[in-house]
Amino acid sequence: MLNAGADYVIFYDGAMPFDWYKAGVEEAHKMGKPAFVRAYGPGIFPAQAAEIGAAQLPHSAGIPLAIAKNPSQFRQGRDDRNELDKCADMDDAKAADLVKTLVAHHVTLVPTFIINYRGYPKEWAQFRTEAH
């Protein structure tokens, strides 16, 4: 895809083996392109993504689980629990360490503030009003 002109490499979840992410990021860098990693785990988490050279963490993927005081109470990976629950359980020291790692490696977080797509037909009017 990079040879065909892709602007970047993106990994859509964190479930593959860690070595695959590392190899993909290295290949992107060889071509002068950035790599974005949704580091939800269990194969890769935010600090690891930063350390191998990811440029961005789309959706700030994996951040809430990485900073939770007791991550074992949550499923690893793309959890069906609201990420606000994980953030409410934040460990300040873990958060500070992760911020230092992300800053040191120049990683950009790309938060998702709202997802606007079909999928809420029953409550669409309310959803649309709140989104606006």
Low-confidence stretches: none
Average pLDDT level = 87
The major sheet is characterized as: 2 strands, parallel
Structural class: mainly alpha
Number of domains: 1
Helix content: 25-40%
Q: How would you describe the overall organization of this protein?
A:
- There is one protein chain.
- With 132 residues, this protein is mainly α.
- The chain has one domain (9-131).
- Helix content is 39%, strand content 9%.
- It has 6 helices and 4 strands; from the N terminus they run E-H-E-H-E-H-H-H-E-H.
- It has helices at 18-30, 46-51, 63-67, 83-88, 92-104, 124-131, and strands at residues 9-11, 35-37, 56-58, 108-110.
- A two-stranded parallel ribbon has the order 1-2. The chain has a two-stranded parallel sheet with strand order 3-4.
- The protein is globular.
- The termini are far apart.
Q: Tags for this entry?
A:
single chain, 132 residues, mainly alpha, two-stranded parallel ribbon, 6 helices, 4 strands, 39% helix
Please render the helix and strand layout as text.
Blueprint lengths: L8 E3 L6 H13 L4 E3 L8 H6 L4 E3 L4 H5 L15 H6 L3 H13 L3 E3 L13 H8 L1
Parallel strand pairs: 1-2, 3-4
In short:
The chain has one domain (9-131).
